[in-house]
Amino acid sequence: MSFSFTSDWSQWNTWLTGGIPMDIPGNGGAECVEFLSSKQRLVETIVWTLILTCLAVVGWRIKQSPTGEVNDVRVPSRTGRRVIITLMALVFGIEIGYKLASNQVIWLLNPCHVMTAIQLYLLAAPSSALSTAVFRTHIYFMNGALLAILFPVTNSFFFPLETEIYWIQHFMILVVPFYLLRHGGQYNLEPLNDWGWALLAYSLQCLYHWLFLQPIGLLIQANLNNMVCPAISDPFHGPHYRTAAMLHQMLIIPLLGKSYVLLADFFITKFPLTKSKSHLCDPLKED
Questions:
Q1: Under a CB-based contact definition with an 8 Å cutoff, are residues 217 and 28 in contact?
Q2: 132-171 burial code (b ≥16 CB/10 A, e <16)
Q3: Which of 29, 69, 221, 269 fits a 20 to 30 Å CA distance from 259?
Q4: Averaged over 161-171, what is the pLDDT?
Q5: Residues 169, 112: contact at Cβ < 8 Å?
């Protein structure tokens, strides 16, 4: 039985990217790959990897870690949690089905799909310091969902209800943390003056783009989250658009995460129509 790497790779590439309309600017293709020189890509990757690694180390050292067993003073409704898990899994499953049917599976690596997978884990995870750490970090990953809502890209959707599923998925990403914060316990946040988790989350998110999305995007010529070439609507469209993105996201990611916490605190502990408890975060039992 003969083995043809070229033939097998062609089949995999068709499955991953065969249905992506490369004629639409910003989706990918040879012109997208050639937008930046190899030298510039290498220099930017090395520089930002070093910077982000240093920031991740600093964030890890200054953050306040969840310790001990989580005090579940408010037991989440099993029915409510099951409904949300079912709905989110259904939406995510439909999204996966669209990507499989259209030969665009590679888009599942984009941050919003990863975010949905993380939230499914959080909804099902047992109480532990690990799930608390994941929850604290993921609060700062919601910038992608917000940007997707404010600047939607739906011109390549062709399946029935595909656009509607897009909106449902991204709104659920913003709503699920609010639901989890209402129950507290393992879904516990750091004090507002603790910026370590924000710094760590920013670094991890950006390293995912530079070290994972970029090489895969270059290999298969798919513009994963605009790491290969800029979006057509990018206000910083130009040879240094990625550095500009790193700088403005350095501000947006922490501020958006802290703003979300402030809004959640207002609606959960102060607003009469939605108030469910007197304080946002339940304490952790010390060892």
A1: yes
A2: bbbbbbbbbbbbbbebbeeeeeeeebeeeeeeebbebbbe
A3: 69
A4: 92
A5: yes
